[in-house]
Design brief:
Structural class: alpha+beta
Radius of gyration: 23 Å
Shape: elongated
Number of helices: 3
Length: about 110
């Protein structure tokens, strides 16, 4: 029985070290607060949106959006239409600044 217990303890120690490695990885991630400190608040948003040659990838070298450019004037309604997986939700997430473009610029009221 002592040999079985030693084997069990060895397994627990291995799992604990794996957990500690994952905790260390998470602790080294950039927080949203750190990224937010680099941004400047917009005083009052009218709502004009410009996408200028925007690219986005969730996975490296697998583009979801390629060279998207459009202008949406404040106070107008724009419909994003396309099949599932065509990038509609990604465009919304980019406008709301939940994710950052791989390349290109997104301007709100010219900023």
């Amino acid at each position: 029985l002592p040999v079985v217990e030693l084997t069990s303890i060895g397994t627990q120690i291995t799992e604990a070290f794996a957990g500690l490695d994952r905790i260390r990885e998470v602790m080294e991630l950039t927080t949203e607060d750190e990224r937010d400190a680099q941004k400047q608040p917009l005083p009052r948003v009218a709502g004009t949106i410009d996408f200028e040659d925007v690219y986005f990838e969730y996975e490296a070298n697998v583009p979801v959006l390629k060279g998207v450019s459009f202008h949406s004037e404040a106070g107008t309604t724009v419909a994003l239409v396309g099949s599932s997986g065509s990038g509609k939700s990604t465009i919304l997430s980019l406008v709301l600044n939940f994710i950052q473009p791989t390349r290109g610029r997104i301007l709100i009221d010219g900023k």
